[in-house]
Here is the input.
Amino acid sequence: MIGVTRNGSVKLTNANKLLEYLAKAPDFISLKEIMETFNISRRTAFNWLSSINQELQKNNLAEIVNIPRYGYKMTDQTKKAIIRHDNRLQVVPKAARTVVSAQDRQTIIVLYLIGSGKNVSINELADQFACSRNTIIKDFKLIKSRFPLLTIASSRTGHQIVSSEVAIRLTVYELLLHHNKLAFNFIKKLNYSVTATRKLVVQAQQKLQMSFSENSIQQLTYWLMFSKWRISHHHHLQDNDDYYSWIAANTKGVLTTCSDLLLKLTNQDCLKGEVTFLSKIILCSQATEVTCVKPSLYRDLANIAQEIIFRYEQLTEQQISYKLFTKVLCNHLYATFFRVKFGIPFSSNEVDEIKRQYPELIKFTAVACAPLEQYLQKKLPTEEVALICLYFGSISSKGYQDFSNGDKLKRASLAEVLVVCSSGIGTSAMLYHELSRLYPLIKFSPPLEIRDLEQIFANTYQARLIVSTAPLNAVAYPIPIVNVKAVLTKHDQSIIESFLREKVPRKIEHNASAVDNLVSIINEYADVKDESGLRLSLDKFIFPENNKSSHSDLPNLGNLLPAKRIKFIHNRDNLSWQQVLQVGCDLLEQDGVVDQLYFQKISDLINKYGPYMLISSNIFLAHAAPSSSSKAVGLSLVLLDHPLVIQAHGQKVTIICMFVLSPGVQREHERALEQLVDIIRSEKNVNKLLKAKTSQEVRKFLLSFN
Here is the structure.
């Protein structure tokens, strides 16, 4: 048994072995694992656990946590409180202890509720997590915001999930999309074969002639294991889904493939609701090739991808019409299209970082994506816009080049650093762009897929490092691996910098001596815990990036749109779009912003490409590329009291107001354009704008966004 000595340390006997095992275990361990590891019976295992808990309780330490489907775990607080020293376990003062992460605790509570399927009391959870009742009550409040799909009912006997089966499946699916380790561990402990389930996913993609990313394969594998467990416990998705017929009419072989997959997975014929839902998840998964949709949908999305790129080019004056980029974007739009259509929410650890680092790109991307929103008759969620923005953000001055797979591998064999992601598109393209900008002297490979690595290392290569957005098995490759996010964080950069200083020091030592001297001085007076991060910050401070432009000194919306260039028109006589456009151009011409030819340039673009300048459901942004007709940067606005139809190039839109923009030669219009996008993306703002009665009211409203 375990006893406490006079000096406060803990004397150990047989249960010591289990105590040490639990203290070292990074996660939950099952009862079966305990019995097999120590070759003891079930009864002995329970006795050991009981003895340990008694002594931990005497020392005011949290007992071993026992959660069904997870197993047993020592809390981080208890682990920190017990330190091995001279073959004894000593108790550390409470002040030195830490608690379990609140987010992890909330996730475990949700999975615990899903796993138990019964009422769980506040007291029970407080005991298991060695925390107060108030902490658990606060957790449930935060769970409501973190897991909005779930409905948790409370009663005198405790809390219980009362959500639909769809909500439960989607909640677990979102956790898997976030690479949540607790969710993966929860599913692992369901005791289903990961290998066998993964094999079913691979067979399904082969049958559908799709090519899933590595992340998608992993997520589908674990989600299927979870679904199998739910079905085996009689939690079925019912046949009340309207999309079965739509999927049958618009895809090829998806329903039958998913039906066969479920039959092999569960050894039983599943309800139509299960088949439909799995079909949705399959179609919403990211893939590099999609050939199971009907030809008309394929053509529509291919055209939409080209329209989005064209609109983005017009907004940013950036040339990106490469065949490879168009194909890559089109492949991504399939998953986006199906997620928005089916209402399957997308979650990603990357999205928040993309929003933080690329707010301007997201705004321009949102406007560029209008054709997809019109096609779906739904507004794209911010998360989806941010993901598409990731593709546009990957475009640099070096370009998204069209080269064959053989050329790509040849260039990779000569690279010093290999850039990899789960699918070789989007995320790695953004990473390639960022790394090339940060370290211009280093040879980076083109964006690679995981499957390319085997072929690269089978031949002659020069790479010294792999930088990957996808998890890779370090043992499988002959050179070091650095795992990072697609949108590099400061921590990611410090890790990469550390490796590059070791592997290719001459390529990044442009300011090494100055930084080294400063680091040495700082180390004399301070305890530096992250020297790599300090070096990176000093490097950026001494040699600031010159290519990062700031929009703070550019003219804003109020500067470019004075009240005299805002005009209200009575459209009872059904004016043509050409007449309204002429009014807007005349307002600019009167101030010397454009010449008389600018109207014709815009008209030619509309006649050639259609009314692509629609930036909201009823707002039109007419503009042409910088030229001799565009004398200065400026805006005019024409508001109509009756809708105006613009019909050109086989397309037809209806608008209620028209902005006319003269862009600057050096993109001086970008700040004002960002502000304009902020306004028109909000239906509430648009309504306020359209309700204005005078030019002064419009200007006052627009100035509120400066």
Notes: Residues 1-12, 84-98, 396-403, 545-550 have pLDDT under 50 and may be disordered. The longest helix spans residues 295-316. The longest strand covers residues 634-648.
